[in-house]
Amino acid sequence: MKNTSSIHHIIHRVSCSDAGEYVCSAKNMLTNGEGALSKLVLIVRCPPCPSPDTLKVTNITALLHCDVTLQFFAQNFFDEHNKTVFAWYKQNLSLQNDKKYIISSYGLKSNLIVRNITYSDYGQYRVTVGNSFGQCAHYYELQDNAPQQSTEPFTASTLFRVAVGISSFTVLVIIMELFFWIYTRRKQTQ
């Protein structure tokens, strides 16, 4: 822009993603190549929401008798200091720091460590994050990492499949023996 002492930038329909630091720089012939720099921080007050990376993680696997960490990152938002509150739940029961659960939250991040996993620890976990403008929740499903064994009951159809398999194998062995017998008879006659 030529011959102007001010510049305007208008953001229509401001959303939470518009929040951040904006930089304006300017130079002219009188500054000998050095420019002026001005920074502007745009604060958009929004309720929290999960970061895009957090949204990708919903199923967590863990082995019995091991520890597992569930991590939640909120998308960058601005709020008053100490107004952001995290809470963790197993099914619908509120979790607190103790020997089983270690909860740590700082800034936009909250961790839940579940210690010494037992079968009763598998299931749904929920973290909520709230501020003075609203709240959101994110769900995790903690699953057993052990190989799954077949739980199919022994039914008539299973018995039929086994019988067909054994019969097919038996027929194959008989055919192979027949070919071997024919082969050895021909060798003897020559």
Index terms:
190 residues; alpha+beta; Immunoglobulin-like; five-stranded mixed sheet; three-stranded antiparallel sheet; 2 helices; elongated
CATH fold assignment of one domain: Immunoglobulin-like
Mean pLDDT: 83
The radius of gyration is 33 Å
Ranges with pLDDT <50 over ≥5 residues? none
Instruction: Give the class from helix and strand content and strand pairing.
Output: alpha+beta
Order of helices and strands: EEHEEEEEEEEH
CATH superfamily of one domain: Immunoglobulins
CATH class of one domain: Mainly Beta
The helix content, as a percent range, equals 10-25%
Strand order of the largest sheet: 3-10-9-5-6
Measured distance between first and last alpha carbons:
105 Å
Helical stretch count? 2
- Please count the beta strands (DSSP E, at least 2 residues each): 10
Give the amount of beta strand, in percent.
Answer: 25-35%
Largest sheet: 5 strands, mixed
What is the CATH architecture descriptor of one domain? Sandwich
Summarize the structure.
The chain has 190 residues and is α+β, with helices and mostly antiparallel strands. The chain contains 2 helices and 10 strands, in the order ββαββββββββα.
Annotate the secondary structure layout.
Blueprint: E1 20-26, E2 36-42, H1 52-55, E3 59-62, E4 68-73, E5 85-90, E6 93-94, E7 101-106, E8 109-114, E9 123-131, E10 134-144, H2 156-189
Parallel strand pairs: 3-10
Antiparallel strand pairs: 1-2, 4-8, 5-6, 5-9, 7-8, 9-10
Provide a descriptive summary of the structure in words.
With 190 residues, the protein is of the alpha+beta class. It has a domain at 52-144: Immunoglobulin-like, CATH 2.60.40.10. Helix content is 20%, strand content 34%. It has helices at residues 52-55, 156-189; strands spanning 20-26, 36-42, 59-62, 68-73, 85-90, 93-94, 101-106, 109-114, 123-131, 134-144. The strands form three sheets. A five-stranded mixed β-sheet has the order 3-10-9-5-6, with no helix packed on it. The radius of gyration is 33 Å and the shape is elongated.
